[in-house]
Structure formats: structure tokens, C-alpha cells
Amino acid sequence: MAELRFDGRVAVVSGAGHGLGRSHALELAARGAKVVVNDLGARVDGRHDDGTGATAAEAVAEEIRAKGGTAIADGGDVATEEGARSLIESAVDAYGRVDIVVNNAGILRDKAFKNITCADWDAVLAVHLRGTFLVTQAAFGHLRENGYGRIVNTTSPAGLFGNFGQSNYAAAKMGIIGLTKTLAIEGSKYDITANAIAPIAFTRMTEDLFPPGARELLSPEKVTPLVVWLAHEDCETSGETYSVGGGRVARVFVAEGPGALLGDGGAEELRDNWPDVNAERPYVVPRNLAEQTEVHFQGLT
Ligand code: NAD
């Protein structure tokens, strides 16, 4: 089996001081990538007033260097324009280029919808959705110039399928899907791919949700092979989303069912055809708006 190597490649991994990001950064570095390990040392709720700052990122960068790899730490906040810009500048200043962007930083402010405050909403959207936008946009010009890039974004099953108490998080994570699909379209001309992973892993973010026995089964290291593959030049897949954890990987896709073509019977005809409207098979998986529009127009004939 030919090893997937990243010699000469430069990767930026956000939120890589702990959990999944740390695992991605270590593995990319072990395979030859020069890595910028970003983390501002936030708690799971995003607050970072405990003075830890960039310590977590520095510890991971040091771990990489101790193993013979190449890495630097960046303690910036990806939710800010300044933090995102300086993260990408760090990569270019230190290593001359950027090839791989892994948007992984994340926080939680879980509350039942009726109790969510604007601050909880904004904080979660800022790190996940705005952070993914800002870091990717800061890198995008470099990727276009190089005619090459691999973007791996991090969504969540909670966003794809919904989850009680996570309206802010789910909205951000589903927003990342739309962003990823559009990046795939806009990047295709420049050999820039963009995909999203929806992980399930035992980290400090999820340790209260899983039984202790799940720690090994759902280790972050079992998610990272998907990131490695999506970040590799041999992988040309783009615009896709994969659920991943414990060694299982599955594509998750947005599909459109066969639908029903209605006459002039108004809402009553719609009511009477409701099962057909909701039928799931046969479905199609449009890859962009144009393909979906074509499917719709075919359904009108
Ligand atoms: P984690 O808490 O271990 O890691 C998240 C990291 O992001 C932390 O080190 C934190 O300091 C950093 N971070 C937070 N805000 C930041 C900011 N503004 N700038 C820079 N860094 C910041 O959690 P994890 O489980 O490893 O989560 C990683 C990603 O995976 C997140 O996007 C999360 O939503 C997603 N995810 C995780 C799971 C899971 O099962 N663990 C499931 C679905 C999605």
C-alpha cells in the first residue's frame, strides 16, 4: 500500500490544541506536512479567560517537533478577521505557502431554543461558521495562485440531522455544508477541493455524552484518516460530506425525492398527494443549483 505523504505541503489546522484538531495536526505532520497548529486555548464554551492562551497550540507544535516533524503554533482567534489573516500569514511567512486548510475549531453553548441568548447564538456562529469563512478566505487567494488546495471543514451530525439544545450549533454546522458546496464549485477551476466531515469522537467536548468505554472506540485518531485522505492531492472528491467515527465512514448527501406534479386543485390536491410529495425514492443527488433546477424542470413535464 503506497503511503499517503505530504512532503512539501503546508497545512493549517484550526483548534488543534486538543481533541480532533490535535490528532489531525499530528498525523499530517507525521506524513511530512509542515503544520501550523492554531488554538487560542478556549474552554468548551468558548470562553478563554483562564490565561492559558496559546499554550495548547504550543504543546502540540512541540509534540510534533519532538517526533521530528515541522510545526509552529498560532494562538489566534479564528472568529476574528485579524486572527484568521495572521494564521494564514504565519504559514506563508514560515513555510512560503499554504496547501491544506483544516477548519476544525469549535465551541458549544447548548441550551433549549427558548433559552438561547443572542450572545450564545453569536458566539457559536462566530467560531464555527464565521471562523471557517474567515480562515478559508484568508487562504483562498494563495490556493488560487498556486492552482492547488485542499479544504477540509468540520460539520456535525447535530447540524445535518438536528439535535435538542443545539439550535445555534446546528445552524452553524449546516451553514458549513452550504459554504463547503459553494467552495467546491468556485475552487474546481483551480484544483481546490472542499469537503466536510461530520465526526463522532470522544473528546473533552463530548466526554459527558459517551460512556467511558467509548474513549478508545471513538478516539479522534479514528477520524483523522478521513482528513488525511481528503487533504491529499490524490483525492479529487469535492463538495461532499462524510460522517466518520470509530472507523466507520459514510457519505451523507442532500437528495431530492421524486415529488408530485399537481394540477389546479390547490391546497386540497396537495393534501391528498402529501405521501407522494414526501416519498424518498427514487431520489436524485444534485451537485449544484443548476442540476437541481434541471431536476425540477424535468418534474414539470
Ligand atoms: P475540542 O474542544 O477538544 O477542540 C476544539 C478546539 O477548538 C479547542 O482546542 C479550542 O481551544 C479551539 N477553539 C475554540 N474556539 C477557537 C477559536 N475561536 N479560535 C481558535 N481555536 C478555537 O473539541 P473536538 O471534539 O475536538 O471538536 C473539534 C471539531 O469537531 C469542532 O468543530 C466540533 O464542533 C466538531 N465535532 C466534534 C464532534 C465530537 O464527537 N467530538 C462531533 C461533531 C463535531
Describe this protein's structure.
It comes from Nocardiopsis sediminis. Keywords: Oxidoreductase. This is SDR family NAD(P)-dependent oxidoreductase. This protein has 301 residues and is an alpha/beta fold. An eight-stranded mixed sheet has the order 3-2-1-4-5-6-7-8, with helices on both faces. Helix 1 packs parallel to helix 2, helix 1 packs across helix 8 and helix 3 packs parallel to helix 4. The longest helix is centred in the middle third of the chain and has 29 residues. The protein starts with 9 loop residues before the first strand and ends with a helix. Bound molecules: nicotinamide-adenine-dinucleotide (NAD).
Give the strand order of the largest sheet, numbering strands 1, 2, ... along the chain.
3-2-1-4-5-6-7-8
How many strand segments? Answer: 8
| Poorly predicted runs | none
User: What is the H/E string?
Assistant: EHEHEHEHEHHEHHEEHHH
Proportion of helical residues = 40-55%
Provide the β-strand percentage band.
5-15%
Terminal CA distance: 50 Å
Mean pLDDT: 97
Radius of gyration: 21 Å
**How many helices in DSSP terms?**
11
Structural class: alpha/beta
Bound ions, cofactors and other small molecules, one mention each:
nicotinamide-adenine-dinucleotide
Looking at the structure, what is the overall shape? globular
User: What's the main sheet like?
Assistant: 8 strands, mixed
What are the defining features of this structure?
single chain; globular; alpha/beta
SSE arrangement:
Layout: E1 10-13, H1 19-30, E2 34-38, H2 55-66, E3 70-74, H3 81-95, E4 100-103, H4 118-146, E5 149-154, H5 157-161, H6 167-187, E6 192-199, H7 214-217, H8 224-230, E7 241-245, E8 248-252, H9 266-272, H10 274-277, H11 289-298
Pfam family, one: adh_short
Organism: Nocardiopsis sediminis
Domain Ketoreductase: 9-203
